[in-house]
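[09:14] KT: can someone run the structure on this one? pasting the chain below
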Amino acid sequence: MEKLVWLVVFMNSFTTFQAILELTGTHDTEGTWKSSITLPCVYGPSQDFVQQTVIWTLVRDQSPATVFRRDSSGDHILLSRYRGRVSMPNSRPGDVSLEIEKLEVRDSGHYTCKVTWRAQDKSLLTRERTTTVKVVKVAVTKPIVRPGPLGFTVPKGARTSLTCSAKGSPPITYRWFKGEPGGDTVLVSNHAVLMFDSLRTSDTGKYYCEAENRASSQVMQQSDAVQLTVRDYQGTSLPLYLIILIVVLCVAVVFVVIAVVLCRRKTKKDNPNEVTDHNSKNLTGGETCSGVNDKCTYEEAKSRGENNYTSQPVKENEYETIGTVKNNDYATLGKATASEYELGDVP
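[09:31] RB: done, C-alpha coordinates below
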Protein backbone atom coordinates (compact mmCIF):
# COMPACT_ATOMS: atom_id res chain seq x y z
CA MET A 1 0.00 0.00 0.00
CA GLU A 2 2.80 2.40 0.85
CA LYS A 3 4.52 1.62 -2.46
CA LEU A 4 1.35 2.42 -4.31
CA VAL A 5 0.99 5.75 -2.53
CA TRP A 6 4.62 6.60 -3.20
CA LEU A 7 4.19 5.72 -6.88
CA VAL A 8 1.12 7.96 -7.15
CA VAL A 9 2.96 10.87 -5.49
CA PHE A 10 5.96 10.36 -7.77
CA MET A 11 3.78 10.30 -10.88
CA ASN A 12 1.96 13.45 -9.81
CA SER A 13 5.25 15.22 -9.10
CA PHE A 14 6.72 14.09 -12.43
CA THR A 15 3.60 15.30 -14.24
CA THR A 16 3.84 18.66 -12.45
CA PHE A 17 7.53 19.09 -13.25
CA GLN A 18 6.88 18.01 -16.82
CA ALA A 19 4.16 20.64 -17.16
CA ILE A 20 6.36 23.32 -15.59
CA LEU A 21 9.40 22.57 -17.75
CA GLU A 22 7.53 21.98 -20.98
CA LEU A 23 9.00 24.01 -23.88
CA THR A 24 6.55 26.06 -25.90
CA GLY A 25 7.00 27.65 -29.31
CA THR A 26 6.01 27.19 -32.96
CA HIS A 27 6.62 24.31 -35.29
CA ASP A 28 6.90 26.34 -38.50
CA THR A 29 7.72 29.96 -39.19
CA GLU A 30 8.56 32.06 -42.22
CA GLY A 31 11.13 34.83 -42.37
CA THR A 32 11.74 37.54 -44.91
CA TRP A 33 15.13 37.81 -46.52
CA LYS A 34 17.30 40.57 -45.00
CA SER A 35 14.86 41.00 -42.09
CA SER A 36 14.89 39.65 -38.50
CA ILE A 37 13.10 36.71 -36.91
CA THR A 38 12.61 35.23 -33.41
CA LEU A 39 12.40 31.45 -32.86
CA PRO A 40 10.32 31.04 -29.66
CA CYS A 41 11.39 28.62 -26.94
CA VAL A 42 9.87 29.30 -23.49
CA TYR A 43 9.33 27.30 -20.29
CA GLY A 44 7.95 27.98 -16.81
CA PRO A 45 10.88 28.17 -14.34
CA SER A 46 10.81 26.13 -11.09
CA GLN A 47 12.78 26.50 -7.86
CA ASP A 48 13.46 22.75 -7.86
CA PHE A 49 15.28 22.86 -11.19
CA VAL A 50 18.19 25.03 -12.23
CA GLN A 51 18.92 25.68 -15.87
CA GLN A 52 22.28 24.25 -16.85
CA THR A 53 22.63 24.59 -20.64
CA VAL A 54 20.71 25.84 -23.65
CA ILE A 55 21.79 24.64 -27.10
CA TRP A 56 20.38 25.66 -30.48
CA THR A 57 21.26 23.40 -33.40
CA LEU A 58 20.50 23.62 -37.10
CA VAL A 59 19.83 20.68 -39.35
CA ARG A 60 20.20 21.54 -43.04
CA ASP A 61 20.76 18.99 -45.77
CA GLN A 62 20.95 16.22 -43.14
CA SER A 63 24.01 17.75 -41.47
CA PRO A 64 23.43 19.05 -37.88
CA ALA A 65 25.50 21.92 -36.53
CA THR A 66 25.45 23.82 -33.25
CA VAL A 67 24.58 27.46 -33.77
CA PHE A 68 24.37 28.83 -30.21
CA ARG A 69 25.20 27.57 -26.71
CA ARG A 70 24.61 29.10 -23.27
CA ASP A 71 26.15 27.61 -20.12
CA SER A 72 27.70 28.79 -16.84
CA SER A 73 30.60 30.39 -18.74
CA GLY A 74 28.37 32.59 -20.93
CA ASP A 75 27.02 32.70 -24.49
CA HIS A 76 28.88 31.14 -27.39
CA ILE A 77 28.22 31.38 -31.16
CA LEU A 78 29.75 28.31 -32.75
CA LEU A 79 28.97 28.94 -36.45
CA SER A 80 30.98 31.83 -37.89
CA ARG A 81 28.33 32.91 -40.39
CA TYR A 82 25.95 33.61 -37.49
CA ARG A 83 28.34 35.79 -35.52
CA GLY A 84 26.93 39.22 -34.94
CA ARG A 85 23.48 38.05 -36.11
CA VAL A 86 22.15 35.74 -33.33
CA SER A 87 21.41 36.41 -29.68
CA MET A 88 19.30 35.19 -26.74
CA PRO A 89 17.37 37.53 -24.40
CA ASN A 90 18.05 37.73 -20.67
CA SER A 91 15.11 39.91 -19.66
CA ARG A 92 12.58 37.19 -18.79
CA PRO A 93 13.32 33.97 -16.85
CA GLY A 94 12.49 30.85 -18.83
CA ASP A 95 12.72 32.64 -22.21
CA VAL A 96 15.48 31.02 -24.27
CA SER A 97 14.23 32.12 -27.70
CA LEU A 98 16.76 32.64 -30.48
CA GLU A 99 16.83 35.93 -32.41
CA ILE A 100 18.35 35.98 -35.91
CA GLU A 101 19.03 39.26 -37.73
CA LYS A 102 19.61 39.92 -41.43
CA LEU A 103 18.22 36.61 -42.57
CA GLU A 104 19.93 34.88 -45.46
CA VAL A 105 18.39 32.30 -47.77
CA ARG A 106 20.71 29.59 -46.44
CA ASP A 107 19.39 30.23 -42.90
CA SER A 108 16.39 28.08 -43.83
CA GLY A 109 16.29 24.72 -41.99
CA HIS A 110 15.23 22.91 -38.80
CA TYR A 111 16.26 24.63 -35.57
CA THR A 112 16.16 22.61 -32.33
CA CYS A 113 16.05 24.18 -28.88
CA LYS A 114 17.54 21.85 -26.27
CA VAL A 115 17.40 22.83 -22.55
CA THR A 116 18.99 20.88 -19.68
CA TRP A 117 18.13 21.42 -15.98
CA ARG A 118 19.71 20.08 -12.78
CA ALA A 119 17.36 18.88 -10.03
CA GLN A 120 17.97 19.12 -6.28
CA ASP A 121 19.07 15.47 -6.22
CA LYS A 122 21.76 16.33 -8.85
CA SER A 123 19.86 14.55 -11.60
CA LEU A 124 19.56 16.14 -15.08
CA LEU A 125 16.39 16.75 -17.07
CA THR A 126 16.42 17.61 -20.79
CA ARG A 127 13.71 18.95 -23.11
CA GLU A 128 13.81 19.65 -26.87
CA ARG A 129 11.65 21.49 -29.36
CA THR A 130 12.17 21.87 -33.14
CA THR A 131 11.07 24.78 -35.33
CA THR A 132 11.24 24.77 -39.12
CA VAL A 133 12.32 28.08 -40.65
CA LYS A 134 11.80 29.10 -44.26
CA VAL A 135 13.45 32.25 -45.54
CA VAL A 136 11.60 33.79 -48.48
CA LYS A 137 12.01 36.82 -50.68
CA VAL A 138 9.15 39.29 -50.84
CA ALA A 139 8.02 40.36 -54.29
CA VAL A 140 8.18 44.05 -55.09
CA THR A 141 5.20 46.27 -54.58
CA LYS A 142 3.82 48.73 -57.11
CA PRO A 143 6.44 51.47 -57.45
CA ILE A 144 5.74 55.12 -56.75
CA VAL A 145 7.22 58.02 -58.76
CA ARG A 146 8.45 61.05 -56.82
CA PRO A 147 9.51 64.29 -58.57
CA GLY A 148 12.50 66.47 -57.77
CA PRO A 149 12.34 69.74 -55.78
CA LEU A 150 10.94 71.65 -58.79
CA GLY A 151 7.97 69.31 -59.23
CA PHE A 152 6.59 68.00 -62.50
CA THR A 153 6.53 71.43 -64.21
CA VAL A 154 10.09 72.62 -64.76
CA PRO A 155 11.61 75.54 -66.73
CA LYS A 156 13.77 74.86 -69.74
CA GLY A 157 17.47 74.37 -68.98
CA ALA A 158 16.89 73.43 -65.33
CA ARG A 159 18.15 70.30 -63.58
CA THR A 160 15.62 67.84 -62.13
CA SER A 161 14.99 64.15 -61.49
CA LEU A 162 12.29 61.49 -61.17
CA THR A 163 12.69 58.75 -58.52
CA CYS A 164 11.13 55.28 -58.69
CA SER A 165 10.57 53.66 -55.27
CA ALA A 166 9.26 50.14 -54.51
CA LYS A 167 9.27 47.84 -51.47
CA GLY A 168 10.39 44.21 -51.46
CA SER A 169 13.39 41.98 -50.97
CA PRO A 170 16.55 43.46 -52.46
CA PRO A 171 18.11 43.68 -54.89
CA ILE A 172 15.43 45.50 -56.88
CA THR A 173 16.04 46.45 -60.50
CA TYR A 174 14.39 49.51 -62.06
CA ARG A 175 13.71 50.63 -65.63
CA TRP A 176 12.37 53.96 -66.88
CA PHE A 177 10.25 54.40 -70.00
CA LYS A 178 8.97 57.46 -71.82
CA GLY A 179 5.38 56.92 -72.85
CA GLU A 180 2.43 55.11 -71.27
CA PRO A 181 2.10 51.42 -70.31
CA GLY A 182 0.60 49.47 -73.18
CA GLY A 183 1.49 52.12 -75.76
CA ASP A 184 4.55 53.16 -77.70
CA THR A 185 7.38 53.48 -75.19
CA VAL A 186 11.10 54.20 -75.22
CA LEU A 187 13.55 52.85 -72.62
CA VAL A 188 15.40 55.84 -71.17
CA SER A 189 17.17 54.53 -68.02
CA ASN A 190 18.03 51.40 -66.00
CA HIS A 191 18.39 53.17 -62.67
CA ALA A 192 16.02 54.02 -59.85
CA VAL A 193 16.60 57.77 -60.42
CA LEU A 194 16.00 59.33 -63.84
CA MET A 195 18.22 62.42 -64.10
CA PHE A 196 17.82 65.45 -66.38
CA ASP A 197 20.92 67.67 -66.35
CA SER A 198 19.53 70.36 -68.66
CA LEU A 199 15.88 70.05 -69.62
CA ARG A 200 14.76 70.63 -73.18
CA THR A 201 11.27 71.17 -74.49
CA SER A 202 11.51 67.78 -76.21
CA ASP A 203 11.72 66.15 -72.74
CA THR A 204 8.07 67.02 -72.15
CA GLY A 205 5.93 63.89 -72.00
CA LYS A 206 4.72 61.02 -69.84
CA TYR A 207 7.07 58.70 -67.95
CA TYR A 208 6.65 55.51 -65.92
CA CYS A 209 8.96 52.99 -64.25
CA GLU A 210 9.12 49.22 -63.69
CA ALA A 211 10.43 47.40 -60.57
CA GLU A 212 11.45 43.75 -60.26
CA ASN A 213 13.40 41.57 -57.81
CA ARG A 214 14.52 37.95 -57.52
CA ALA A 215 11.54 36.70 -55.54
CA SER A 216 10.21 33.26 -56.34
CA SER A 217 7.15 34.76 -58.01
CA GLN A 218 9.29 36.91 -60.35
CA VAL A 219 6.57 39.54 -60.55
CA MET A 220 7.30 42.80 -62.37
CA GLN A 221 5.41 45.88 -61.19
CA GLN A 222 4.70 49.09 -63.13
CA SER A 223 4.03 52.55 -61.76
CA ASP A 224 1.39 54.97 -62.97
CA ALA A 225 2.48 57.30 -65.78
CA VAL A 226 3.32 60.87 -64.74
CA GLN A 227 3.37 64.01 -66.88
CA LEU A 228 6.62 66.00 -67.04
CA THR A 229 6.20 69.47 -68.54
CA VAL A 230 9.13 71.63 -69.65
CA ARG A 231 8.21 75.29 -70.10
CA ASP A 232 10.18 77.74 -72.21
CA TYR A 233 9.85 80.86 -70.06
CA GLN A 234 10.43 84.23 -71.75
CA GLY A 235 13.21 86.35 -70.40
CA THR A 236 16.34 85.41 -68.59
CA SER A 237 16.06 82.99 -65.75
CA LEU A 238 18.55 83.97 -63.07
CA PRO A 239 19.78 81.61 -60.39
CA LEU A 240 18.28 82.08 -56.96
CA TYR A 241 21.58 83.10 -55.36
CA LEU A 242 22.07 85.82 -58.00
CA ILE A 243 18.58 87.21 -57.40
CA ILE A 244 19.25 87.35 -53.66
CA LEU A 245 22.57 89.14 -54.28
CA ILE A 246 20.89 91.77 -56.48
CA VAL A 247 18.20 92.43 -53.87
CA VAL A 248 20.81 92.83 -51.11
CA LEU A 249 22.83 95.29 -53.22
CA CYS A 250 19.72 97.35 -54.01
CA VAL A 251 18.81 97.57 -50.34
CA ALA A 252 22.38 98.61 -49.48
CA VAL A 253 22.31 101.39 -52.11
CA VAL A 254 19.00 102.71 -50.73
CA PHE A 255 20.42 102.85 -47.21
CA VAL A 256 23.55 104.68 -48.43
CA VAL A 257 21.46 107.28 -50.28
CA ILE A 258 19.27 107.86 -47.22
CA ALA A 259 22.36 108.23 -45.02
CA VAL A 260 23.91 110.81 -47.38
CA VAL A 261 20.70 112.86 -47.52
CA LEU A 262 20.38 112.88 -43.75
CA CYS A 263 24.01 113.94 -43.33
CA ARG A 264 23.64 116.85 -45.76
CA ARG A 265 20.50 118.06 -44.02
CA LYS A 266 22.27 117.96 -40.70
CA THR A 267 25.22 119.95 -42.14
CA LYS A 268 22.91 122.66 -43.50
CA LYS A 269 21.19 123.02 -40.14
CA ASP A 270 24.51 123.35 -38.35
CA ASN A 271 25.95 125.92 -40.92
CA PRO A 272 23.03 127.78 -42.55
CA ASN A 273 25.28 130.51 -44.12
CA GLU A 274 27.89 128.15 -45.55
CA VAL A 275 27.76 125.97 -48.67
CA THR A 276 30.39 124.14 -50.62
CA ASP A 277 31.23 125.48 -54.06
CA HIS A 278 33.09 123.05 -56.34
CA ASN A 279 33.85 125.65 -59.05
CA SER A 280 35.73 128.93 -58.78
CA LYS A 281 33.41 131.69 -59.95
CA ASN A 282 32.41 135.29 -59.22
CA LEU A 283 29.50 135.57 -56.82
CA THR A 284 27.09 138.49 -56.42
CA GLY A 285 25.23 139.86 -53.51
CA GLY A 286 28.17 140.01 -51.13
CA GLU A 287 29.42 136.41 -51.65
CA THR A 288 33.07 135.62 -51.03
CA CYS A 289 34.97 132.44 -52.06
CA SER A 290 38.63 131.54 -52.06
CA GLY A 291 38.77 128.58 -54.51
CA VAL A 292 37.61 125.05 -55.32
CA ASN A 293 35.73 123.40 -52.45
CA ASP A 294 36.09 126.66 -50.49
CA LYS A 295 33.36 127.77 -48.18
CA CYS A 296 31.44 130.78 -49.44
CA THR A 297 29.82 133.28 -47.12
CA TYR A 298 26.65 135.01 -48.24
CA GLU A 299 25.94 138.57 -47.12
CA GLU A 300 22.63 140.14 -47.64
CA ALA A 301 22.86 142.65 -50.49
CA LYS A 302 21.72 146.14 -49.87
CA SER A 303 18.74 147.47 -51.75
CA ARG A 304 19.65 149.48 -54.83
CA GLY A 305 17.20 152.24 -53.95
CA GLU A 306 18.52 152.62 -50.44
CA ASN A 307 20.24 155.95 -49.68
CA ASN A 308 23.61 155.99 -48.04
CA TYR A 309 23.04 158.19 -45.10
CA THR A 310 25.78 159.18 -42.79
CA SER A 311 25.71 160.59 -39.36
CA GLN A 312 28.70 162.88 -40.08
CA PRO A 313 27.90 166.64 -40.51
CA VAL A 314 28.06 168.01 -44.04
CA LYS A 315 29.99 171.19 -44.70
CA GLU A 316 28.51 174.22 -46.37
CA ASN A 317 30.68 173.89 -49.48
CA GLU A 318 29.44 170.35 -49.97
CA TYR A 319 25.83 171.56 -49.87
CA GLU A 320 26.63 174.20 -52.58
CA THR A 321 28.36 171.61 -54.77
CA ILE A 322 25.41 169.26 -54.55
CA GLY A 323 22.99 172.07 -55.42
CA THR A 324 25.06 173.16 -58.41
CA VAL A 325 25.20 169.61 -59.76
CA LYS A 326 21.48 169.26 -59.48
CA ASN A 327 20.76 172.56 -61.21
CA ASN A 328 23.08 171.68 -64.10
CA ASP A 329 21.40 168.30 -64.44
CA TYR A 330 17.98 169.84 -64.63
CA ALA A 331 19.17 172.37 -67.29
CA THR A 332 20.70 169.65 -69.42
CA LEU A 333 17.56 167.54 -69.16
CA GLY A 334 15.41 170.52 -70.22
CA LYS A 335 17.46 171.19 -73.32
CA ALA A 336 17.39 167.58 -74.37
CA THR A 337 13.63 167.54 -74.13
CA ALA A 338 13.18 170.71 -76.20
CA SER A 339 15.38 169.33 -78.93
CA GLU A 340 13.30 166.15 -79.08
CA TYR A 341 10.12 168.18 -79.49
CA GLU A 342 11.68 170.34 -82.24
CA LEU A 343 12.77 167.32 -84.22
CA GLY A 344 9.27 165.96 -84.00
CA ASP A 345 7.81 168.96 -85.88
CA VAL A 346 9.91 168.41 -88.99
CA PRO A 347 7.86 166.92 -91.82
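[09:33] KT: thanks! The radius of gyration is 55 Å.
[09:34] RB: yep, looked fine to me
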